[in-house]
Amino acid sequence: xxxxxxxxxxxxxxxxxxxxxxxxEPSGPPPLSEIALNAVVEKPGAPxxxxxxxxxAFFTDEAAEETRAVLVVHRGEIVAERYGEGYGPQTxxxxxxxxxxxxxxxxxxxxxxxxxxxxxxxxxxxWQRSGDPRGEITLRQLLQMRSGLRHTENGExxxxxxxxxxxxxxxxxxxxxxxxxxxxxxxxxxxFEYSSATTVxxxxxxxxxxxxxxxxxxxxxxxxxxxxxxxxDPVGMKxxxxxxxxxxxxxxxxxxxxxxxxxxKFGEFLRNGGSVKGxxxxxxxxxxxxxxxxxxxxxxxxxxxxxxxxxxxxxxxxPGSAPKTAFAAIGHxxxxxxxxxxxxxxxxxxxxxxxxxxxxxxxRIGDIAALYPSG
Length: 375
Fold this sequence. Notes:
CATH architecture of the domain at 97-241: 3-Layer(aba) Sandwich
Structural class: alpha+beta
Helix content: 25-40%
Shape: globular
Strand content: 5-15%
Strand order of the largest sheet: 2-1-11-10-9-8
Number of strands: 11
CATH superfamily of the domain at 97-241: DD-peptidase/beta-lactamase superfamily
Order of helices and strands: HHHEEEHHHHHHEEHEEHEEEEH
Largest sheet: 6 strands, antiparallel
CATH class of the domain at 97-241: Alpha Beta
CATH topology of the domain at 97-241: Beta-lactamase
Radius of gyration: 24 Å
Number of helices: 12
């Protein structure tokens, strides 16, 4: 009886293998397309097939929605670059909130020039009137999103959010005046509140440091030239186009345009501590300040997001896939410039993904980061 049972079981064990050889379900992922493989150099610093597949996932995963550009830089060299249909190396992409990190670097340059001081009260004239508690707000607190000013970044309905009102409705002609008119809702320094209005205030402070004129054209030229000569040209970001409102204030919270390659150069500049080919553009200490956890949110530095958990345990990036020293400039609809100094890695993803699907994009970026070792 036992012998007969074995004779019946053996054919059943062999059958799946025979079916596999006979045109059954294939094992493993499907082969990569020529487009996917050609987007990655021969030696990308990690297994080429895995890098190509991770990049390809941005363009094939429906949850990530519309990916327009992906670019990976390792040890200073572009190792992967791919664009969606209708986009290419010459396309300028909107920054959305990635602009905040550029604004922070501009403030850092002005501090290093001696035109601004990090721990003095913010030089906003209307806040300096006797009895105004906003006169206690410092530049550091503005940079770390803990000014205490009233703000709702994402309101319901959408047109009620302070960001939308400032950018497109009643604040659009003079965004700084609108932002600086907001009252306190918390003691300065005590509460983290992500706020595009705060960054517009920083942009106004930069303009005031560069010119005494209130003429919109004069303000616009002063800031644009400062950005060009002190940051964009030295870093090699030749495509960058900043936008200004009608009052001549840089829309430093949301609207600076540039190619994917130039956004990658910005990431590399930050990854290298503010230097380019050995030339220190902004003091290394300023980049260290930007990427140091702020007192009220360990996942945020100074106008930049960090690869750490927030106080409530949630994450914006991917602490499990990259070192905690990684950080990112992040913009609305899925714009990312991620820099990881320990991995000598910069990843850029640009596209259009609704907020509810952001996790799919973050996961895909994390999948690329996980392929690269530290050191």
